[in-house]
Amino acid sequence: MADAVNAALDRLYPGRVLTAHYVDSRWIGKLERGEHRWPSEERRAALRHVLGAASDGQLNLYSPRRTDVPTTANHGTEQPMPGSLDETVYQLRAQWHLLVQNDKLFGPQYALIGVTAQLNLLDRLLNDVPSSFRPSLVRLAAQYAESAAWLNHSLNDALAAQQWTRKALIWAEQIADPTMTAWATYRSSQHWLIAGKPHRAVEEAEAAMLQDKKVPSPVRAALRVQHAHALATVGEHRKAMQLLDSAHEWAADRRPGKPEGEHASYCTSGYIEVHRGTCLRIGRRPDEAIAVLDAALPSIPSLHRQDFTAALLTKAAAHVAADQPEQAAATAHIALPIARQAGSRRILHQLGQIGSAVDGHRHLADVRAFLDDLVEAA
Prior knowledge:
Blueprint lengths: L1 H11 L12 H8 L8 H11 L33 H22 L1 H19 L7 H21 L3 H17 L3 H17 L3 H12 L7 H17 L3 H11 L21 H14 L3 H11 L8 H17 L3 H18 L2 H14 L6 H13 L1
Protein name: XRE family transcriptional regulator
Organism: Micromonospora arida
InterPro entries: TPR-like_helical_dom_sf (IPR011990)
């Protein structure tokens, strides 16, 4: 579709420099989701040409509220008109990206304040909004609800995380949005794993995979990672490894240009290999898990504190499984201050479990140092 629009631009405006008006697949996706309501005149003309439409109205495109004519400033940029509902959607989406960064910088407890406030605002807006704007707002509400689920998951509040995941899924299904439906179902699979119900986690992971060909590449990678994790937990180790192999084809770092904060932008090749280490540990192959994790850890960005500490936690658990308490404690000890800084109660709780596993080896210096710091953290 993007290629056809660009070709139409060249035919309709020969001799003009059209760099500002060319589109890509992400732009088409935003158009489909209603995130672009009034493209530039050139883009609208190309869309009408490609889709055989006689008017913009046939494409369900309309100018922003308070004006019937797009201003010059709107050409090629789709900047919303001040005071319009377009601007509200635009600002709420920008706030979502900011809150994703706040989670990384200041921790989930801080970010959850903003996410909750925006969800309250969206709830009010959805009660009184024109039907043409409702899909965009519902998608944003689903996006914020899924973020609330993740933040509560980080804060070790499983009940709240499950409730927000269900809410995100309801909203996503209302507008038949494949990405948000897949993502909320992916999150649900994670919750079932944490709840100790791996077979249900597999079912949810398989349900998420039904959207596989309709979602962006990094999301396809993340869906495979979660499916692999769930399968490893029920003993399907060979299938898990095959899924992780295939996930690399869709890894976020295989396709540059995805902005930080988009769904699954974290799902890089290194992240996939960290989860290979997790699956190997689950499959009682701790030595292989340790080797894989040692190779993958340097590729996890330092800003992704929770991902980094989760990888260290997995490595510590593998050392425990390999009967290496001193290495387990030393690895967990590295993770402890980072987890505190990240504000992840879930990881701090799991580090406490590592502490319990090595408690019988207090005579070892690294174990004693870790346990002493663990008491302080508590």
